[in-house]
Amino acid sequence: MKYLYLIGFLCCFISTNMLSKDYDASLFGIESDGRTMNTNSIQKAINFIHKQGGGRLIFHVGRYLSGSIYLRSNVTLHLKEGAVLLGSTNPFDYEYNEEWTAFIFGLNQDSIAITGKGIIDGQGYQVAQNLVSLIQKGVVEDPRFSNDRPYARIRPQNIYFKGCRHILIQGIQVNNPASWNQQFDQCSHLIIDQIKADCKNYWNNDGIDIVDCDSVIVKNSFFDASDDAICLKSHHPKFRCKDILIYNNTIRSSASAIKFGTYTFGGCQNIKIIKNTVYDTYRSAISFQMMDGNHVENILIDSLRVINTGNVFFFRLGERKKGKVGSMKNIQISNVYAEITADKGDKGYLYEGPIEHMPRNCSPAVITGLAHAAIENISFRNMEIHYPGGADSNFAKIDLNDVQSIAELPSKYPEYSMFKELPAWGFYIRHARQVRFENIRMTVHKADFRPAFVLDDVQDGLFQNFQIKATSSKWTNLKNLDVYKHRCQLIEIIPPNSNH
């Protein structure tokens, strides 16, 4: 019902915008030559429109140079096709507010929007390089400066909204930030629709970060990011991400495509990830990294297509601070097609994901809880997954009789490669309850010395209508030989056409 309300809000918002008064940027002396610094003029235009009760500030074809600006209630920035809102390359033209630096701020505002077919270009690479120079000269202090990389919070994001309600970001391109591309923190009733996010020119270029937000739709958009593309986080224990729909997006990432975490102080619930395509991605297509307590629950993933990606699923329930552990439960995954690569999915991009623990064998999908906090009630239905296979035992061969020696690593930063070598080619599942697989096909394209599944401390597992195929052979039913079990109970394998 909340999603229907959001769609209704979108229709009303568009209608209101069509009827609202338009103000040309030129009316306020805002120059489109790409050289004149327009910060003060743009801000005064926004303030004026806000005081008049609202309206749209229209940017026509041209390049509009500016530093930090603040969007106000009932104001829309509308970028016509050919209009570029251009971020200054001088780091001193940006403000630090709410512990972040940004190009466009929105703080505790209502009914704000950025629309059109134009571009926001943060010129982030050059901003970051100029900031590096200032730090090295001692003009800017950065205690966290390392490897010629300034701290992410002092590099400007393109968009940072906090505490805002009724937000529409539609149609635009959001490119080249110096830090995260766009962050929405403790916001509600947010719609991201038909945008393009090209943010792969510098470190930490997340596509979009949704932090402690309520009632969000991200749909019909394209994300190309050097870090996580669509990232859900919880920075505050009194807030959480809830009632979020991620629908019909195309995603590429040099980290993970759709990720929750790693900051998870308030948890998340009621997340729907439907009809998305992931390609040329280094890490995981879907990654839930629960490290700071609280709860992840009621997750639906449906109609997912994954091509040339390092890992399909990574679900990790960890314990970054001892004694602070949450729960992860009620996850339904269905209608998935995935092709996992043995190579780097993001190979050739400017900021590739790091080569970790190489050489190593291709990792399986990973679902790992803790001995005292199992992942519960997770189901997979109607999936076809292609794995490269071809594991080399000279890299590392784990003795299946010694799987308990695989380190738990409860506080380590979570990624699917965190355990280095894993003993399965398909799925590695540890500390889980009520795991269901139904109508699944998995292909391994080269012979692999590892079994398809390794289950360690899995209680109540069901494999129904599950088939495996090597490229040169026919489909065969899943057999006990394909599933190694350690410390497991109630694991049932039901072949196709069984009368069970």
Runs with pLDDT <50, length 5+? none
How many β-strand stretches? 34
- What's the arrangement of strands in the largest beta sheet? 26-27-29-30-28
Return Rg in Å: 24 Å
Distance between the termini: 38 Å
Quaternary arrangement of the chains shown?
Answer: single chain
The helix content is under 10%
Output the number of helix runs: 3
What structural class do helix, strand and pairing data support?
mainly beta
**Mean pLDDT, nearest integer?**
94
Biggest β-sheet strands, sense, barrel: 5 strands, parallel, barrel
What is the domain tally? 2
List strands and helices in order, with pairings.
Blueprint: H1 2-19, E1 22-24, E2 33-37, H2 39-51, E3 55-59, E4 62-66, E5 69-70, E6 75-79, E7 83-87, E8 95-97, E9 100-107, E10 110-116, E11 119-121, H3 124-136, E12 157-162, E13 165-170, E14 173-175, E15 182-185, E16 188-193, E17 196-199, E18 208-211, E19 214-219, E20 222-225, E21 230-234, E22 241-247, E23 250-253, E24 258-264, E25 268-290, E26 295-317, E27 327-340, E28 365-368, E29 375-387, E30 427-444, E31 453-470, E32 476-477, E33 483-486, E34 489-494
Parallel strand pairs: 1-3, 2-4, 3-6, 4-7, 5-9, 6-10, 7-11, 9-12, 10-13, 11-14, 12-15, 13-16, 14-17, 15-18, 16-19, 17-20, 18-21, 19-22, 20-23, 21-24, 22-25, 23-25, 24-25, 25-26, 26-27, 26-28, 27-29, 28-30, 29-30, 30-31, 31-33, 31-34
Antiparallel strand pairs: 8-9, 31-32
